[in-house]
Amino acid sequence: xxxxxxxxxxxxxxxxxxxxxxxxxxxxxxxxxxxxxxxxxxxxxxxxxxxxxxxxxxxxxxxxxxxxxxxxxxxxxxxxxxxxxxxxxxxxxxxxxxxxxxxxxxxxxxxxxxxxxxxxxxxxxxxxxxxxxxxxxxxxxxxxxxxxxxxxxxxxxxxxxxxxxxxxxxxxxxxxxxxxxxxxxxxxxxxxxxxxxxxxxxxxxxxxxxxxxxxxxxxxxxxxxxxxxxxxxxxxxxxxxxxxxxxxxxxxxxxxxxxxxxxxxxxxxxxxxxxxxxxxxxxxxxxxxxxxxxxxxxxxxxxxxxxxxxxxxxxxxxxxxxxxxxxxxxxxxxxxxxxxxxxxxxxxxxxxxxxxxxxxxxxxxxxxxxxxxxxxxxxxxxxxxxxxxxxxxxxxxxxxxxxx
Length: 404
Prior knowledge:
The chain is an alpha/beta fold.
């Protein structure tokens, strides 16, 4: 059996990876221009297919039959071939958001929700909230101003259905959560980056928050059940979500200058097949000179600016191993850049083993003072810490611990 996904821009889609874990069937991407959608639907020999942005409404007139749920939402994301010919349109995004909302649906019954955005995904969210008896207010893109948001301080659930903050526009946020003192849960339908600026703010405020990866996987699993005409294990969504998360998160290596981050990154790359990115290399390439020369000619503040620019670009990517400079933790902005899409690993090396050659701050300040200044930041920023006596063993341990 052959299945697939149609949409306009699909290069970063996780759907093939998800469906490869659902069943032993072919699942391919079919990027289409608007003028080609009708022709594809009428001529394809696929047994069924999924539909994503921006065609979830456009395919409705192309369906011979449509589910009551899809009618109510006004959106179709799964199309199944009818035995007598033609297509049956359904909506499995509904199942996806039900999964993402989870047990909080019962807790939030009767509580106020704020839905940011009014596109196709928002219609699905609105239907689920209505069915779960969670009253809501929709804030459209045009209405989304601090003044408008401030009128809803009693909102206990914030759901972002808009593309604000989605790759490659990482760092943008659709709302300031400090306006909602009663907020107890934030859901963002975006899954790339893993933590949008909205979710990072929720994390900083101690508000529980979840991204849209579980919704994406749950709707995919439900589509898989429709494709295969059978029920799938209830644990499958969680298993696939965890696997995709591990596969797509970057591994960022932090630690003192000369501790072996680049060496460890290359060793880990050989073990996992992941590509390595080194922010120091990116800085050298952009500046056209070695790092000590940058310090001499332009000073440390200029270097830190280049460092943040390099990190901002590379941290948007997925599934990389990223080696960063020892002073990356000196710039507070870099914390959010790392946290948005990465697991952070601190390589803690014996100071006597550090290579100080060509490292301006290690030579000028001394490694003991640098370590004392930076250790609290390394510890606060990292998810894992490894004492590194043997980098090959450390790389193997990272691979095992992170299930890479």
